[in-house]
Each structure stands twice: as structure tokens, then as C-alpha cells.
Design brief:
The protein is mainly β. It is built from 1 helix and 10 strands, in the order ββββββαββββ.
Length: about 140
């Protein structure tokens, strides 16, 4: 045995690192998805299957959701895009085990914000005000 643990890691213990931006208290990360398109190729005389040839690989946008705090770096980054200053940044999403040790790391590069969503405000509620920011990027790889 190599000493690797055979059980899966919990999904609730992670951290986000984006060059020059403190991303505090992120509660959700979605969009860790890579998809390769295929093109079918039918061969004459072969009727029991169709060849699937790989084409372009696409990366879904990464969305970060967090409670609004006094830290406004993410908002400021998006506002720079709004006024035409596309500042691309590299980052990492790091999954940790129960002891807080890094186990998996997904790196992304060339990211910039393309969507910001503010909180749903309700006078009769007492929930946390959440914001989310969606990042376009040039790819994900395991670090």
C-alpha cells in the first residue's frame, strides 16, 4: 500500500486563492467542469457503432458565493471589468481533509469576472446576505 486513504474527502473544507485578492468566507464553489465536444463519424458498412472523434474542450465558468463583508476586492475587480480594464488573474481552489491538510488543488488561469449577483434582501428574514461572482478563465488543471 502507498499510504493513500481510500475514502472520499468532505466537500465543505476548502479555500480559494486568487492572485492579489483575499477571498474570505466563500460558502459555495461551482463550475469545476471540463467538457470535450465530439464529432460523430459514420463508417459505411459498419452499422453497430458510430465513431466519436474528440474536438474542442470547454471549461465552464467558476462561480464563487460568499457572505457580504467589508472586504470588497471581488466587487472592485468586477467594477474594473465594467469600465473596460480586464485584469486577468490566476487562482486555485484547494480541497482539504478533516485535519486541514491540502489534498486536491484545481488551478485556473487567465480568469476575470463576467457576472456579479447581489443578495436577495428581505425585511422579514434573518439570513446572511450573499453575493456571487462568476469567473471566465482559460482552463483548469490539477495542481
Amino acid at each position: 500500500m502507498t499510504g493513500k486513504k481510500p475514502y472520499p474527502y468532505p466537500s465543505f473544507r476548502f479555500r480559494i486563492e486568487i492572485g492579489g485578492i483575499t477571498v474570505a468566507q466563500v460558502s459555495d464553489v461551482t463550475g469545476l467542469q471540463i467538457e470535450t465536444e465530439t464529432e460523430p463519424l459514420e463508417e459505411g458498412g459498419n452499422n453497430d457503432f458510430i465513431y466519436q472523434l474528440p474536438k474542442r474542450t470547454k471549461y465552464q465558468n467558476i462561480t464563487l458565493k460568499r457572505g457580504i463583508t467589508d472586504l470588497d476586492e471581488m466587487w472592485n475587480w468586477y467594477q474594473s471589468v465594467v469600465i473596460g480594464k480586464f485584469i486577468r488573474k490566476n487562482g486555485s481552489i484547494v480541497l482539504m481533509d478533516a485535519a486541514g491538510e491540502d489534498k486536491w488543488c484545481w488551478n485556473f488561469h487567465g480568469a476575470f469576472p463576467v457576472k456579479w449577483t447581489g443578495p436577495d434582501l428581505k425585511s422579514d428574514g434573518n439570513t446572511v446576505a450573499f453575493e456571487s461572482i462568476e469567473l471566465a478563465h482559460h482552463g483548469i488543471w490539477k495542481g
